[in-house]
Amino acid sequence: MSPRWLRCRTPRAAARTRLVCFPHAGGSASFFGTWGAGLPQDVELWAVQFPGREDRIADAVPASMAEVVAGVLADLGPLLDRPLALFGHSMGAVAAYEVARALEARGEAPTRVFASARHAPDELVGGDIHLRDDAGLVEEVVRVGGAGAEVLKANPELWPVFLPAIRADYRVEETYRHLAGAPLRAPITAVVGEDDSEVTPAQAERWSDFTTGGFDLRVVPGDHFYPVRHNAMLLDLLTCQLNEVKDVLR
User: What region holds the Thioesterase TesA-like domain (predicted)?
Assistant: First the structure.
Protein backbone atom coordinates (compact mmCIF):
# COMPACT_ATOMS: atom_id res chain seq x y z
CA MET A 1 0.00 0.00 0.00
CA SER A 2 1.29 3.48 -0.85
CA PRO A 3 1.99 5.73 2.13
CA ARG A 4 -0.79 8.22 2.77
CA TRP A 5 1.39 10.93 4.30
CA LEU A 6 4.48 10.84 2.06
CA ARG A 7 5.12 11.56 -1.62
CA CYS A 8 8.24 10.97 -3.72
CA ARG A 9 8.27 12.58 -7.16
CA THR A 10 11.87 11.63 -7.97
CA PRO A 11 12.56 8.07 -6.73
CA ARG A 12 16.21 7.11 -6.51
CA ALA A 13 16.74 3.45 -5.68
CA ALA A 14 20.48 3.94 -5.17
CA ALA A 15 20.15 6.97 -2.88
CA ARG A 16 22.53 7.00 0.07
CA THR A 17 20.36 9.32 2.15
CA ARG A 18 16.79 10.60 2.24
CA LEU A 19 15.37 14.05 2.97
CA VAL A 20 11.79 14.31 4.24
CA CYS A 21 10.23 17.78 3.84
CA PHE A 22 7.29 19.25 5.79
CA PRO A 23 5.32 22.18 4.29
CA HIS A 24 4.09 25.38 5.88
CA ALA A 25 0.53 26.04 7.10
CA GLY A 26 -1.73 25.76 4.07
CA GLY A 27 1.05 24.15 2.08
CA SER A 28 1.24 20.76 0.43
CA ALA A 29 3.69 18.23 -0.95
CA SER A 30 3.74 20.10 -4.27
CA PHE A 31 5.61 22.98 -2.57
CA PHE A 32 8.64 20.68 -2.88
CA GLY A 33 7.71 19.38 -6.32
CA THR A 34 10.93 20.39 -8.11
CA TRP A 35 13.34 20.00 -5.24
CA GLY A 36 14.16 16.35 -5.81
CA ALA A 37 15.50 17.02 -9.30
CA GLY A 38 17.70 19.79 -7.90
CA LEU A 39 19.39 17.61 -5.31
CA PRO A 40 22.30 15.21 -5.94
CA GLN A 41 21.56 11.81 -7.41
CA ASP A 42 22.35 10.09 -4.12
CA VAL A 43 19.66 12.05 -2.20
CA GLU A 44 16.02 10.97 -2.41
CA LEU A 45 13.44 13.60 -1.45
CA TRP A 46 10.11 12.76 0.15
CA ALA A 47 7.45 15.40 0.85
CA VAL A 48 4.79 15.23 3.54
CA GLN A 49 1.21 15.53 2.30
CA PHE A 50 -1.06 16.80 5.07
CA PRO A 51 -4.72 15.69 4.83
CA GLY A 52 -7.39 17.86 3.26
CA ARG A 53 -5.52 19.03 0.15
CA GLU A 54 -4.50 17.92 -3.34
CA ASP A 55 -4.76 14.12 -3.61
CA ARG A 56 -5.90 13.97 0.04
CA ILE A 57 -8.69 16.51 -0.36
CA ALA A 58 -11.27 14.05 0.97
CA ASP A 59 -9.27 13.08 4.07
CA ALA A 60 -10.20 14.57 7.43
CA VAL A 61 -7.97 17.49 8.37
CA PRO A 62 -5.66 17.04 11.38
CA ALA A 63 -6.84 18.38 14.74
CA SER A 64 -3.45 18.70 16.45
CA MET A 65 0.31 18.55 15.99
CA ALA A 66 0.25 15.16 17.72
CA GLU A 67 -2.04 13.83 15.00
CA VAL A 68 0.30 15.12 12.30
CA VAL A 69 3.32 13.52 13.97
CA ALA A 70 1.57 10.19 14.45
CA GLY A 71 0.47 10.10 10.82
CA VAL A 72 3.95 10.79 9.47
CA LEU A 73 5.58 8.31 11.83
CA ALA A 74 3.21 5.59 10.69
CA ASP A 75 4.55 5.94 7.13
CA LEU A 76 8.24 6.55 7.83
CA GLY A 77 9.19 2.99 8.69
CA PRO A 78 10.20 1.81 5.20
CA LEU A 79 12.41 4.90 4.75
CA LEU A 80 14.53 4.23 7.83
CA ASP A 81 16.77 1.70 6.11
CA ARG A 82 19.01 4.63 5.12
CA PRO A 83 20.14 7.82 6.85
CA LEU A 84 17.27 10.30 7.05
CA ALA A 85 17.28 14.10 7.40
CA LEU A 86 14.21 16.27 8.02
CA PHE A 87 13.38 19.73 6.62
CA GLY A 88 10.42 21.80 7.75
CA HIS A 89 9.27 25.23 6.62
CA SER A 90 7.39 27.50 9.07
CA MET A 91 4.78 25.31 10.78
CA GLY A 92 6.49 22.37 9.11
CA ALA A 93 9.66 23.09 11.10
CA VAL A 94 7.84 22.26 14.33
CA ALA A 95 6.35 19.12 12.79
CA ALA A 96 9.83 18.02 11.65
CA TYR A 97 11.22 18.71 15.13
CA GLU A 98 8.47 16.72 16.85
CA VAL A 99 8.93 13.81 14.44
CA ALA A 100 12.67 13.93 15.18
CA ARG A 101 11.92 13.76 18.92
CA ALA A 102 9.69 10.75 18.38
CA LEU A 103 12.29 9.01 16.21
CA GLU A 104 15.03 9.59 18.78
CA ALA A 105 12.80 8.19 21.51
CA ARG A 106 12.72 4.98 19.44
CA GLY A 107 16.48 5.00 18.88
CA GLU A 108 16.17 6.08 15.25
CA ALA A 109 17.74 9.53 15.26
CA PRO A 110 17.69 11.58 12.04
CA THR A 111 21.02 12.81 10.73
CA ARG A 112 19.99 16.49 10.76
CA VAL A 113 16.93 18.70 11.20
CA PHE A 114 16.52 21.83 9.06
CA ALA A 115 14.21 24.37 10.73
CA SER A 116 13.22 26.97 8.15
CA ALA A 117 11.42 30.30 8.78
CA ARG A 118 10.27 29.40 12.28
CA HIS A 119 11.16 30.56 15.77
CA ALA A 120 12.08 28.03 18.45
CA PRO A 121 9.33 25.56 19.38
CA ASP A 122 8.85 26.78 22.94
CA GLU A 123 8.02 30.31 21.77
CA LEU A 124 4.23 30.38 21.97
CA VAL A 125 2.31 31.25 18.82
CA GLY A 126 -1.26 31.20 20.08
CA GLY A 127 -3.71 33.45 18.28
CA ASP A 128 -7.19 33.32 16.82
CA ILE A 129 -6.53 33.13 13.10
CA HIS A 130 -8.12 29.69 12.87
CA LEU A 131 -11.27 31.14 14.49
CA ARG A 132 -11.70 34.03 12.06
CA ASP A 133 -14.31 34.10 9.32
CA ASP A 134 -13.27 33.13 5.80
CA ALA A 135 -12.45 36.68 4.72
CA GLY A 136 -10.29 37.21 7.81
CA LEU A 137 -8.43 33.96 7.19
CA VAL A 138 -7.77 34.91 3.57
CA GLU A 139 -6.47 38.32 4.64
CA GLU A 140 -3.91 36.59 6.88
CA VAL A 141 -2.78 34.34 4.04
CA VAL A 142 -2.35 37.42 1.85
CA ARG A 143 -0.46 39.26 4.59
CA VAL A 144 2.06 36.46 5.01
CA GLY A 145 2.43 36.18 1.25
CA GLY A 146 1.85 32.51 0.59
CA ALA A 147 1.90 31.16 -2.95
CA GLY A 148 -1.42 31.81 -4.66
CA ALA A 149 -2.64 34.13 -1.91
CA GLU A 150 -3.80 36.88 -4.25
CA VAL A 151 -5.54 34.37 -6.50
CA LEU A 152 -7.37 33.01 -3.48
CA LYS A 153 -8.43 36.51 -2.41
CA ALA A 154 -9.76 37.34 -5.86
CA ASN A 155 -11.77 34.12 -6.21
CA PRO A 156 -14.09 33.52 -3.22
CA GLU A 157 -15.62 30.57 -5.07
CA LEU A 158 -12.38 28.72 -4.29
CA TRP A 159 -12.68 29.26 -0.54
CA PRO A 160 -14.79 26.16 0.24
CA VAL A 161 -12.13 24.03 -1.45
CA PHE A 162 -8.95 25.47 0.06
CA LEU A 163 -9.84 27.15 3.33
CA PRO A 164 -10.70 24.05 5.42
CA ALA A 165 -7.13 22.78 5.16
CA ILE A 166 -5.63 26.23 5.74
CA ARG A 167 -7.84 26.77 8.77
CA ALA A 168 -6.91 23.35 10.14
CA ASP A 169 -3.20 24.09 9.78
CA TYR A 170 -3.56 27.38 11.63
CA ARG A 171 -5.42 25.53 14.37
CA VAL A 172 -2.57 23.02 14.65
CA GLU A 173 -0.04 25.87 14.78
CA GLU A 174 -1.94 28.03 17.24
CA THR A 175 -2.85 25.24 19.66
CA TYR A 176 0.61 23.62 19.68
CA ARG A 177 2.36 23.69 23.04
CA HIS A 178 5.93 22.52 23.44
CA LEU A 179 6.48 19.85 26.10
CA ALA A 180 9.84 20.09 27.83
CA GLY A 181 12.22 17.21 27.37
CA ALA A 182 15.73 16.25 26.37
CA PRO A 183 17.23 18.20 23.46
CA LEU A 184 17.74 16.44 20.16
CA ARG A 185 20.95 14.53 19.57
CA ALA A 186 20.65 15.36 15.89
CA PRO A 187 22.21 18.66 14.77
CA ILE A 188 19.87 21.49 13.79
CA THR A 189 20.30 24.01 11.00
CA ALA A 190 18.00 27.03 11.31
CA VAL A 191 17.42 29.03 8.12
CA VAL A 192 15.67 32.41 8.05
CA GLY A 193 15.15 35.06 5.40
CA GLU A 194 16.70 38.41 6.24
CA ASP A 195 13.39 40.14 5.40
CA ASP A 196 11.11 37.61 7.12
CA SER A 197 8.30 39.48 8.89
CA GLU A 198 7.36 36.44 10.98
CA VAL A 199 10.66 35.47 12.61
CA THR A 200 13.93 37.26 13.34
CA PRO A 201 17.43 35.78 13.19
CA ALA A 202 17.62 36.11 16.99
CA GLN A 203 14.45 34.03 17.33
CA ALA A 204 15.75 31.45 14.87
CA GLU A 205 19.05 31.23 16.75
CA ARG A 206 17.19 29.93 19.81
CA TRP A 207 16.86 26.60 18.03
CA SER A 208 20.38 26.06 19.37
CA ASP A 209 18.79 25.34 22.78
CA PHE A 210 17.07 22.27 21.34
CA THR A 211 20.06 20.19 20.30
CA THR A 212 23.28 18.82 21.72
CA GLY A 213 24.41 17.70 18.28
CA GLY A 214 25.59 20.99 16.86
CA PHE A 215 23.83 24.07 15.53
CA ASP A 216 24.10 26.25 12.46
CA LEU A 217 22.18 29.47 11.73
CA ARG A 218 21.89 30.68 8.15
CA VAL A 219 20.40 34.10 7.37
CA VAL A 220 19.61 34.18 3.67
CA PRO A 221 18.12 36.67 1.20
CA GLY A 222 14.34 36.83 1.02
CA ASP A 223 11.21 36.96 3.13
CA HIS A 224 9.09 34.30 4.84
CA PHE A 225 8.80 32.40 1.56
CA TYR A 226 12.44 32.74 0.54
CA PRO A 227 12.50 29.10 -0.77
CA VAL A 228 10.31 30.19 -3.68
CA ARG A 229 12.50 32.98 -5.03
CA HIS A 230 15.83 31.61 -3.82
CA ASN A 231 15.33 27.91 -4.34
CA ALA A 232 18.69 27.19 -5.97
CA MET A 233 20.50 28.84 -3.07
CA LEU A 234 18.57 26.75 -0.54
CA LEU A 235 19.17 23.50 -2.43
CA ASP A 236 22.89 24.30 -2.50
CA LEU A 237 22.82 24.74 1.28
CA LEU A 238 20.93 21.48 1.78
CA THR A 239 23.30 19.65 -0.54
CA CYS A 240 26.35 20.96 1.29
CA GLN A 241 25.09 19.94 4.71
CA LEU A 242 23.77 16.58 3.54
CA ASN A 243 27.17 15.89 1.97
CA GLU A 244 28.79 16.55 5.36
CA VAL A 245 26.56 13.87 6.84
CA LYS A 246 27.37 11.41 4.06
CA ASP A 247 31.11 12.01 4.54
CA VAL A 248 30.79 11.22 8.25
CA LEU A 249 28.85 8.02 7.49
CA ARG A 250 31.43 6.67 5.02
Answer: 20-238
**Between helices 134-144 and 159-175, what is the axis angle to 10°?**
70
DSSP 155-190: -GGGHHHHHHHHHHHHHHHHH--PPP-PPBSS-EEE
Could you give the CA distance from residue 23 to residue 48 in angstroms, rounded to a whole number?
A: 7
Assigned CATH topology for domain 6-123+178-249: Rossmann fold (3.40.50)
* Active site members: 90
Q: Could you report the per-residue pLDDT of 133-189, keeping only the tens digit for each?
A: 888 888 888 877 766 777 878 888 988 888 898 899 999 999 999 999 999 999 999
Q: What are the tens digits of pLDDT across the range 15-42?
A: 999 999 999 988 999 999 999 999 999 9
